[in-house]
Every structure is written in C-alpha cells, then in structure tokens.
Amino acid sequence: MKRLLLLNGPNLNLLGQREPETYGSETLQKIIELVNETAAEAGYELDHFQSNHEGELIDKLQQSQNNVSGIIFNPAAYTHTSIAIRDAVSAIDVPVIEVHISNVHKREAFRHHSMIAPVSAGQIVGFGIEGYRMAAHGLLNMIEKEGR
C-alpha cells in the first residue's frame, strides 16, 4: 500500500485551544481526518506524527526515506529556526510540502523567513486547516507526475 506522512511540529497538539483567533477552533485530530480522507481517496494510507521535540521530528523525517511517497509537514516554530530540520528535509529523497495554518507573511517579521521552504517541494500558507488538504492534493499530483 502507498503511504503518506503527515508531520506536525511543536504546539500543534494544542490546536483548538491555542490562539483560536490565529489558528481557528479545529483540532489536530480534525486535520488528520481531512488529510486521511484525501489520501484514502487516492489509494494511500496516512501515517501521522506530532512532536514538540526537534530531534523526534528529524528522526521521523529520516525514517520516512523508504517508507512513504511524500510528506506534508508543518514544522511550526521550527520553520524559522531549525537548520537541523532543514538539513533533514534536504537529506531525504521524498517530496515535502511545507504547510502553515496562518499566513506567516502577515505576522511578526521573524515568521517571514522559512528555513524549510528552500528545500521543500512546495509551501502552502494562510488557508487554515484547508491548507493541509491543499497540500495533500498537490503532493499526490506531484507523486503521480514523478511516478513515485
């Protein structure tokens, strides 16, 4: 069976509670359901993982190399700070779509730069949790075109 990985970084386990004016009222579980639905429609199984720890996210990226066809990744705050996560994304031969619920370019200046975008296959920002579904569609299209 073909597989995708949905990877979420720090504090995304608090969706629905944390800053609903910025991130909305939906939970991480709802995002998992949305992406799982989209993946299943295309004949893919979905693995999902969330961690508040940089090293665990890096481990998951490295383990994905021969196990998934693509990754939807919200690195959260690590987007702007983690060279280690950037290097892990760069080191694997799996397409990664970076996704953010809010439009990071309309927020604080420190959020305007992504360490991950230059090594990602694409980036989706500002569409709320619907951005995850958009990322899944884009990733699946990319995988199909590349024949992965």
From TrEMBL:
Catalytic activity: 3-dehydroquinate = 3-dehydroshikimate + H2O
Gene3D superfamilies to which the protein is assigned, alphabetical: Dehydroquinase, class II (3.40.50.9100)
CDD domains on file: DHQase_II
Active-site residues from the entry: Y23, H100
One Pfam family here: DHquinase_II
Chain's role: Catalyzes a trans-dehydration via an enolate intermediate.
Protein name as it appears in the record: 3-dehydroquinate dehydratase
Origin species: Halobacillus salinarum
Encoding gene (name): aroQ
